[in-house]
Every structure is written in C-alpha cells, then in structure tokens.
Specification:
By secondary structure, the chain is mostly beta strands. The protein has no helices and 11 strands.
Length: 123
C-alpha cells in the first residue's frame, strides 16, 4: 500500500494549513492512520492518530490546534493545522496500518509511511 501526502508549505505563525494523505494499492483494508513529524535533530514523534471508527488521539503539544480526520470512501486521512507555531516546523509523515493481500494469498499486516512533506512556520 502506497501513501501520497500533499499540502506542505511555508506559513506565518498563527496561520493554518491542511495536509492530506491518500492510500492506494491493490486489495487492502485500512485500520489506524496517523500523522507524525520530525524536526531537525529530533526524533520522529506522534502528532495525531485516528482509528477506522473515528476515534482520535493527539500529542499534548497540538491538542486544540490540530484536527485529524479521515474519509474512508477515499482512503484518505487529513490533518487540519490551525494556530501554527514556529515549533511546529518539521517534516510531516503520514502512516497507515492495515491488512492487504495479493490474488490467491492470505491477508498480511502492513505498516506504510508516506514520503514526508515539509511544514515551515515563520515567526
């Protein structure tokens, strides 16, 4: 399963951006999807996750500012980012977990990452 993320860019502090990430591939079923980020010199960290039923989880640093959502008909996850701060500057990655199979094969679990998209927030 491949993930394609879109929507990165440069924004001023206090501004907003929306990321999207679409899954594609052969036969698969998506479970949890989420967004992670990695700032220069830091480890990758969780931003937000959402289950297939719509339950969400957020890092404390983004609660009340970011909103994760998904459209199961489009196999797409979104991240609405409001009130952006310079410390939100990072490369943002989408992630999807689920099961997939090739024709005639059994279902197997997968864990896929998108290619990353840069978000830069200027002060």
């Amino acid at each position: 399963v491949q993930l394609q993320a879109c929507g990165g860019g440069l924004v001023q502090a206090g501004g907003c951006l929306k990321l999207s990430c679409a899954a594609s591939g052969s036969t698969y079923r998506l479970n949890d999807m989420g967004w992670y980020r990695q700032a220069p010199g830091k480890q990758r960290e969780l931003v937000a996750t959402i289950t297939s039923a719509g339950s969400t989880n957020y890092a404390d640093s983004v609660k009340s500012r970011f909103t994760i959502s998904r459209d199961n008909t489009k196999n797409t996850v979104y991240l609405q980012m409001d009130s952006l701060k310079p410390e939100d500057t990072a490369v943002y990655y989408c992630k999807a977990q689920g099961i997939s199979r090739s024709f005639g094969s059994a279902w197997i679990a997968f864990d896929s990452w998108g290619q990353g998209t840069q978000i830069t927030v200027s002060s």
